[in-house]
Input
Amino acid sequence: MDDEGRQATFGADGDLSERDPDADDTNDFGEPKDAGETDGGYSRYAVSSLLQKAVRRSDEEVAAWAAWELARSGFAWNLWDRLTLYVVEDLRAGEDVALLVERYEELATERWEPGEWRGRLCAIHAALACARATSTREGPNADEYFRNAAEERAAARERGEEPEDDFPVGEFEPGGEYDVAFDEHTGEGSRLGRGARFFKTHGARVGPEGETGLSAEWQRRNMELYDVEFSGAEIEHALASVEADGKWAEPEFEE
Output
């Protein structure tokens, strides 16, 4: 089994039977618990998987229950591993809930006991926060696609053929679509003599909103103070928003 499957199934340390030593050794029915059994008599692997599926599908009640079940059963470490995995595997980039999960885990495991009532409340709150966040598989989908594209690219070279699919940047060299990347901060850009004029005019642009307010004013005044004498057109271009349908298009300016 590869590392990804192992982490998703067994937890970060790969231990199949680790339970909080202070947890009860019998389930809700008074029966001895197996190594991977929760207090409710469920497989903790299945409950852990259900937790992630529930937050992925925004099912708040099921997510809250699964988190509570793991926490009360002595598998809080599995709960927090799973929620931490969720925020990088199934969460839209930029969601603040990633910080909330970390804070709830800190409270549950460092200030309080993870299986006692305050620790369980942290578990429930963290699961609810995740279930209410925007779920997406963009991270894993990108990772898998880029890995497969890399394999196809290498195999195509060995065959002496063009790949069926390629990285989004293609050959990625000066003069191509992403020419602006080769500025004074790269070896290629330095050899091309691309200094402050090229970087400030082309390489520091943002989009698609462009520079606004004080940032735009500071950039304008800064370019006017440079040793390089920028034209009005260069300054306006540096402040202009990147085109939504042509993010890498850059005009040439005469020096």
About this structure: Residues 3-136 form a domain with the Zinc Finger, Delta Prime; domain 3 fold (CATH 1.20.272.10).
